[in-house]
Design a protein that fits this description.
alpha/beta; Lyase, Ornithine Decarboxylase, Chain A, domain 1; TIM Barrel; 2 domains; eight-stranded mixed sheet; eight-stranded parallel sheet; 10 helices; 30% helix; elongated; binds pyridoxal-5'-phosphate
């Protein structure tokens, strides 16, 4: 398997990034911010009725926050640290929601003091904390969704609650003086099955109807989370195909007069804008007769490639070396045997690949820098540059 750069980048964009890369020592991620701006426009055009809340965890760089703020984005925040960072970039409290369902009461208070008035929850204990620490705020309840089997990076089980409990919590929210505002879900990141949104929207509809009929609560918002795809080795439908289908699901269940719709893209906004540039440290074989080569690179699971865990995300890897390809195992530079990126899935790399050759990991703008370890084996966190 050899990949074509043109399938991932416009030639001009790649040329610019490669020229920059040639001037810098590996490993690092280089990110083309114009690509992010285009991805934002594409989401906004395909979902004209939705408000976009960028999921900051995908890449918390100041350059990206400022760019998206200028473009009119809102921000989905998970911790007091992310909060301080986006506020320092000029983002206003009205543009922020606290989307993490797992949070300390004193952190809720911190958000409230900074002016944030919209909170996710999925448990009674958290809801009671919010009622005390952030009185009168808008509440949306996250529900569990199925279909995580078709997401390359599932976000199921840990977050969300069953439909019955979601309704109980929204009723309780009203009793506690909060505003029962809406329902959220996340179908799993890099979700390849568009039908997952249909099932989730169907559940939301049931909650909307029952609460209206039985409790006189009129919910106003649906937060559909992220899950939209980036371009990795396994190709997906286009964003346009996702948008057309999801819009149809929404209209089937809610008619033309939709509630407020929120999207929280992370991966789909940022991933395609990045190239992680690494260098081959060694190529070796484990015995005289072993056919399989091991390619050790200067990046690994602990320096930005944690999403290769269980080989979940298969990044396209490109090298300038041409020639006959042969299967390899690809591993990182640290003294940890978990630091193997691909072993079962066979990447073919050229037989003449050698130490100091560069490997270009495409579509690595999201979930790389923010996942990189601080000092494992002394290796510094992954560097990143923003063009
Ligand atoms: C991580 C996360 C997102 C972003 O998901 P992507 O699949 O990267 O778009 C959105 N919302 C919440 C609550 C998240 O935790």
């Amino acid at each position: 398997m050899s990949i074509k750069v043109e399938d991932y980048f416009a030639p001009e964009t790649f040329k610019k990034m490669k020229a920059f890369a040639d001037q810098h020592e590996t490993p690092f991620v280089v990110i083309d911010t114009a690509t992010i701006a285009r991805a934002y426009d594409e989401i906004a055009e395909n979902f004209p009725f939705a408000k976009i809340y960028y999921a900051v965890k995908a890449n918390p760089a100041v350059e990206i926050t400022k760019l998206l703020n200028e473009k009119g984005s809102n921000f989905d925040i998970a911790s007091i640290y992310e909060l301080d960072k986006v506020l320092s970039c000029g983002v206003k409290p009205e543009q922020i929601s606290f989307g993490n369902t797992i949070k300390k009461a004193r952190d809720v208070r911190y958000f409230y003091e900074k002016g944030i008035r919209m909170y996710a929850t999925d448990s009674e204990a958290d809801l009671r904390n919010i009622a005390k620490a952030a009185p009168g705020s808008k509440i949306y309840v996250r529900i569990l969704t199925e279909g995580s089997g078709s997401a390359d990076w599932p976000l199921s089980r840990k977050f969300g609650c069953q439909t019955d409990m979601a309704m109980d919590l929204l009723v309780l929210a009203r009793e506690l003086g909060l505003v029962p505002y809406g329902v959220s879900f996340h179908v799993g990141s890099q979700q390849r099955e568009i039908g997952s949104w249909d099932a989730a929207i169907g559940k939301v509809k049931i909650i909307y109807e029952r609460l209206r009929e039985e409790d006189g609560i009129h919910l106003q918002m649906i937060n559909m989370g992220g899950g939209f795809p980036a371009n990795y080795l396994n190709r997906t439908n286009t964003l346009q195909a996702y948008a057309e289908e999801i819009t149809r699901f929404l209209k089937e269940d809610f008619g033309d007069d939709l509630p407020e719709i929120i999207l929280e893209p992370g991966r789909s906004l940022i991933a395609n804008a990045g190239i992680l540039v690494s260098e081959v440290v060694l190529v070796s074989r484990k015995s005289r007769t072993a056919v399989e080569r091991w390619v050790y690179t200067d990046v690994g699971k602990f320096s930005g490639l944690i999403e290769t865990m269980d080989e979940s995300i298969k990044f396209p890897i490109w090298t300038e070396k041409q020639g006959e390809l042969e299967d390899v195992v690809i591993a990182g530079p640290t003294c940890d045997s978990a630091d193997i990126m691909y072993e079962n899935y066979k990447y073919g790399l050229p037989l003449n690949l050698a130490s100091e050759d560069r490997l270009y990991w495409l579509s690595t703008g999201a979930y790389t820098t923010s996942y990189s370890a601080v000092e494992f084996n002394g290796f510094p966190p992954l560097k990143s540059y923003y063009l």
